Amino acid sequence: MPSIRFSALNQLGQRQPVEIKLPSGPISAYFATNVFGADAMQTSLSADTYKRLTQAMASGEKIDYDTADAVATAMKRWAMDKGATHFTHWFQPLTGATAEKHDAFFEISEGRAIERFQASALVQQEPDASSFPSGGIRTTFEARGYTAWDPTSPAFLYENGGAKTLCIPTVFVSYTGEALDHKAPLLRSMELIDKAATAVCQMFDKDISYVKPTLGPEQEYFVIDRALFFARPDLMLTGRTVFGHSPAKGQQLDDHYFGSIPQRIHHFMMEFEVEAHKLGIPIRTRHNEVAPSQYECAPTFEEVNVAVDHNQLLMDLMEKVAERHQLKVLFHEKPFAGVNGSGKHCNWSLVTNTGRNLLAPGRRPKENLVFLTFFVCTLKAVHDYADLLRASVASAGNDYRLGANEAPPAIISAFIGSQLSNMLDSLEETAEMQFDKGDNVYLKLGINKIPEIMLDNTDRNRTSPFAFTGNKFEFRAVGASATISDPVVVLNTIVANQLLDFKEEVERQFNDNTKREVTIINVLREYIEASKKIRFEGNNYAEEWMKEAKRRKLSNVTDTPRALDFMITKQARDLFSRLGVFTERELEARHEIRLEAYQKKIQIEARVMGDLAINHIIPTAVAYQNKLIDNVRGLKELGLDQPHAEVAIAGIKDIAGHITSIRTLVEEMVEARKRANKVEDARERAILYCDEVASYFNRIRYHVDKLEQMVDDEDWPLMKYRELLFMR
């Protein structure tokens, strides 16, 4: 094993930055050139077909067969002109990854090979539904499932190894119509919030005809050399290091954050950004993150459905480009102990057809009343359904990250800044809004004046899981490897639900003797009072907040199996089924799938840990112990057994103690795993893995990491943290 480690280090020593050829001209010259978007469709389709297609997409109506056939023909011609030979329905099953099955454009007709791609192939295909997680919706012998074209997310060309494939974003449903993917519920939630938000907007502005949720997901990740990655079996199989003593230098000097990007990494970033831009992914930002070898990229805002597709595509693209640079991208939430983990900050807002960001404060009174309506309704939704938001980000990887003084805790709270907090308090308590920008400005209830609210009027709070950052809410608790569809579906749904309640409540309270603005403010005051316990402006990492949150009766569920319980409460079932986002069957299936995913990931980690400990660490420690024993014998032969031999003997005893502890703990962990495996119920089995199996991880790690400090560096079998994090 040490030979693998030193061979990897030798390979690393010979690495050179991979030269890349950047396109000539500005990014705008090649942006979205591999996307069959509006420009390509307008060029390829007749004016009448293009009009019918865009009208159907805007209204959400079904696209007729003739239009679909014309689109298919134009799409095939466009793709083949760019060198594509195959097409695929690109979908997002409940594995958390993407899926694709490639078919060639050509077929045999009357003994001749011809290129053909018809509406039937564009609109629908049939992958095997039984081979993907379904939570009991489909059994092994019920294999039929369907992918169906999502025209709201543009088709694109994906190049891999020189071959180009036309990828058509689709939903994936069972033969009986249940959603088996992440996209179908997302589209349902988008349609829901569009209707709810538009109805509220029209209370203020009749020109608003639709509202779209937007998203700008920041993506954190680690990058290490590919050879070093393959020299760590735990990284290969689990995405994280189960062992590894912290190096003397980690992130304590804060010298990596926003520092100069290493050359190899910079070349990798430039290449994946170019490829992303060709695919229409609007990456704008790149920088070093806090931990050594940790980085971040971020796009501009897009409509939620496209943003989710682009984030899934981006992760796949980054991994493929990294291979060409002999690098490995790590998306696990906590690949290394002792340094910051990685998240995926979801910046969410609502935008109207007129271009108005509903979460952006304005300069006119009416604009700010609209802003306050959507702002307060969002806070009320987060308050009422905080547990659902917690469940949406629950995973085995995120359990290692949340609350580790580097990421938000498992307590869901909202930070809005002192100015807005004071304004809401004033409105709630005195029916006046006080705003301080040098002079005090007051709004008395019923006066048709709303004070100006400045953008970025307060500091940011990076410890908050749900923070208002000037014109959007940033949900920071999402894990780096997760699909952002799950938390966004919850966010869309709970806010839509609150907006529906708000409109109903305003209509119930409104009468001819009161101005509508007064009724709106009265309802908002009720919401402010009802949701205030979710607001917290301080340090979410502090122990004092844990105590205060408990006093406020906010949930603090730190493990995934119990957090997932919130998915299937009566409140959650009623919400999703009433609003048509999930059926009860779909919700229960997702609960079971995520429990099984958690259990299997912990099971894999336990097996990897046991294998490394018994087959690699203990033999290495025993071999080094034997060296010390030989050393003691030699000292005695030379008559130098005191006091020199005492040091070696103490080391031998320490090593023996750690070896014994490791072997004992691994055996106990294996027995705990066997007991858990016998349990049929998915929830009970997941909880046993959480409480009993995973409870051994840190105890075993303690002894292994102690041995790493004692065994000769040249004998140690695993790549060390200083090598993984600092050698590029």
UniProtKB/TrEMBL annotation:
Domain of life assignment: Bacteria
Gene3D superfamilies: 1.20.120.1560, Glutamine synthetase/guanido kinase, catalytic domain
GO BP annotation list: glutamine biosynthetic process
An annotated Gene Ontology molecular function: glutamine synthetase activity
UniProt domain GS beta-grasp: residue ranges: 85-177
Domain GS catalytic: 182-617
The family this protein is said to belong to: Belongs to the glutamine synthetase family.
Name of protein: Glutamine synthetase
Species assigned in the record: Catalinimonas alkaloidigena
